[in-house]
């Protein structure tokens, strides 16, 4: 497994660390660089110290889009557990903007995690990427195509509920094309050695972790390790803890863990829009 971070930074700052031919220049003036860097790159420490210097001044050196794990096929197929995420374009508007209700009054008063969705999902259907079988809104609502629902059901993939999706604010007929992907159980605890934080450096303080324990922090910077009661597990389940913060339309979410069976069904049927990372049982 190779581990990378992907980051965006100003061209001026990029030159402090990267060669001219590394990454990609973007933006109207080509003044932003998007780079992927291996976390065992000898220059990683330089990046960490630049970021610390900027952080101490209340600013940031780079914007991190995430930590990427790159696996061989053998590593993926040998994993005892996988984390499932939706790949591809995140669509807008979110369900909340189209009339889906959330009970924000029952969310955690400290971190805003855990507001339950209290009505069926409403979305602007035309904004969902058409060629995907799994797609996600900016509010972290996940939808699944009819084809994928049929395949997952036929293969008896357990742990999932397929909720209706209504198009627009007033329609009374659910969409025939899309369902909401709902995971039944959120009973796995994120445990050590999982690394959760905001910035991928050892000096990070994981400032978004909620003192009440319901939110583990901003994002996973390592593979997830979880603990769950019992030895029989459904093919999909979530962690008890949320990640990310409540901001505007963004809602903290619970990572989804899946079995090799789920992984295999997705690959064998070529379902589009799924992304997998290796995960572990403690
Ligand atoms: Zn909280």
What can you see in these coordinates?
With 282 residues, the chain is an alpha+beta fold. It is 16% helix and 33% strand. It is built from five helices and 19 strands. The strands form five sheets. The chain has a six-stranded mixed beta barrel. Strands 6-9-10-8-7 form a five-stranded mixed β-sheet. Strands 2-3-1-4 form a four-stranded antiparallel β-sheet. Zinc ion binds next to loops.
List keywords for this structure.
282 residues; alpha+beta; 5 helices; 19 strands; 16% helix; binds zinc ion
Give a topology summary.
Blueprint: E1 2-10, H1 11-17, E2 24-26, E3 32-38, H2 44-56, E4 63-70, H3 73-78, E5 81-86, E6 121-123, E7 134-136, E8 142-145, H4 146-154, E9 160-167, E10 174-183, E11 186-190, E12 196-197, E13 215-217, E14 219-220, E15 225-227, E16 236-239, E17 242-243, E18 256-258, H5 260-268, E19 274-281
Parallel strand pairs: 6-9, 11-16, 13-17, 15-19
Antiparallel strand pairs: 1-3, 1-4, 2-3, 5-18, 5-19, 7-8, 8-10, 9-10, 11-15, 12-14, 16-18
This protein binds zinc ion (ZN).
Residues 108, 110-111, 113, 210, 212, 214-215 line the site of zinc ion (ZN).
